[in-house]
Each structure stands twice: as structure tokens, then as C-alpha cells.
Amino acid sequence: MQIARTIEDARMMIMEAKTRALREGRSTVTGFVPTMGYLHQGHASLLRQAREECGVRVLSIFVNPIQFGPKEDLSRYPRNEAGDLQLAEENGVDVVFLPSVEEMYPRAIKTSVQVADVTERLCGASRPGHFDGVATVVSKLFNIVQPDKAYFGMKDAQQVAVIEQMVFDLNIPVQIMPCPIIREADGLALSSRNVYLGVEERRQALILSETLKLTEDWLAECRGDFAAVKERMEAHIRTMPLADIDYVDLMLYPDIQPVYGLPVGEWAGRRLLAALAVRFGTTRLIDNRLFELGDGVSKTLRPAEQSRAGVSRV
Question: What class of enzyme is it (predicted)?
Fold first, then answer.
């Protein structure tokens, strides 16, 4: 495994890895996993899928300052370079791109990528400018790495929708590969931010996955009254005294458009995202579940179906 800290070195090492794969008779398809580090088994699952499908595997670790809002503490984001590199090597990464802020943004950035519409709700509403920063840095990383496939976890389903829209609109030659949410044994979605939860906050945070599981039954019973389902979701989360709701919502996916009030003919056969963002103390957690809507009934998409659901149209 090679470690690149400059854009020039990353490009050179990726080319060398492709040449080596070609010489050894292996696939030169390049799989890319962009991250902000502090890696966990959710990230490892992305790396394992890339290892299964690609002959060259690239991981980036970069805490991107332009996706943090003015009230969000960039310096507080957890970091563990040694642990990240160990996990990367254990999961077959060929090249780790680990740039500094100065390498990625050597001077004030004057060009940004903005994806309209799908960014205006959910996290886009509560974190203005966040997805502009995400789209900009991902487009930069795609230009540096030039991958054939890029792997993203569905825990941030809106981010996946944003990246897919960007890739489609700008004809970027990369296939987006959404991957299922990885959870702890008790149901809590893996997140780098979980480390900040106190013991009682961690216990109460289980209400998120519990609510999403119950939502499947509520949707099956709702007969199209999605507003009532949203109210039940909010009420269930509020049974935990430490839960401070940022948003609870139901959106058509990947459009990120409201489903409320639509006649059955306009939502039957579509996918529905039940999405949550809730603070426990100072820690903001997100979680979601993806459903397929029918005539008054719903089913949860299985992991393989979730993964295929968002594959880019490029």
C-alpha cells in the first residue's frame, strides 16, 4: 500500500498501480472510496466491495473544511491516521490519498459545484452550504483519482443522491455505487461521531433505528396519509428525553421531494426515504431507511436492492 500526500504523487501512484495490475493480468478498473477518515467497519465494507469488484483500490482521507458550516467545529472532527492506515491495508487498498488542506486548497477557492433542488431539504435545509462543499470536493477528488467506480454509504442517502445528480449532469465518467448501511449489533448506524456519545446518550440513540423499523409497519397501514406517519415517527423519537430533533421526514428518492398530498398514481412504485437527524447532547446523528411504495403498502428494500436503487445513469 502506498501513501500519497500530494496530488502529483497520488496521480503517479494510481498510474503505477494500474500498470502493475495490467502487467499481472488483473483488472485495471479503479474503485475509489472517498472519506473524511476516522474509519470504522462501515468504511471497511465499502473497501471490501471495491476490492471484490476492482483491480485497483484507492482511498482518500480528507477532512474537508468547506463542507462545515460556521457553527460546526471543524477542529473537533475525530481523527486517527494510524488506525485509518491500518484498516486500509487490512482491506486491500493500493493507494491512500491523504492530502493537507493546503494541498487541496492552495489559495482561496473561486469555483464551486452547486447541485440544486435535491440539496434544499433534509440536511441541506439545516446545514446551508454543506452540499456545495461536498459536491466541490468530490468533483476535485474525481478529477484527481479518475476512478471507474466510486463507493458511498447509504447512511447519508441525500449525499448519494447529490453525487449521482452531479455525475449525471456533468457527464463525469464514474459509476456511483451506493452501499448498505452498516449497523452495530443493537441497531445503531455506524458513524465516526458515535464516539462522542455518552453512555446514556448512546442508549437513547437506539430510538432512531427502532423508529425506522416501526415506520415500515406504519407505512403499510397509512393508506397514503404520510403526514400521519411523520407525526408517529416524531412522537416515538420524543419518548427519549435527550432526543433533540433536527428533522424527521419522508421524501421521494432520489428526488428528495415531499410525498405528502400526492395522489396514489404519483407515488406508487416509487422509492421513499424515511430520514432522521437528531441530536443527543452535542452529537448530531443521521439515519434512514429506504422503502418501495405500492398501492397502500410498502416494503423495505433489502441491502442488494438498496445498492442497485441508486446506481448512476452514466
Answer: ligase
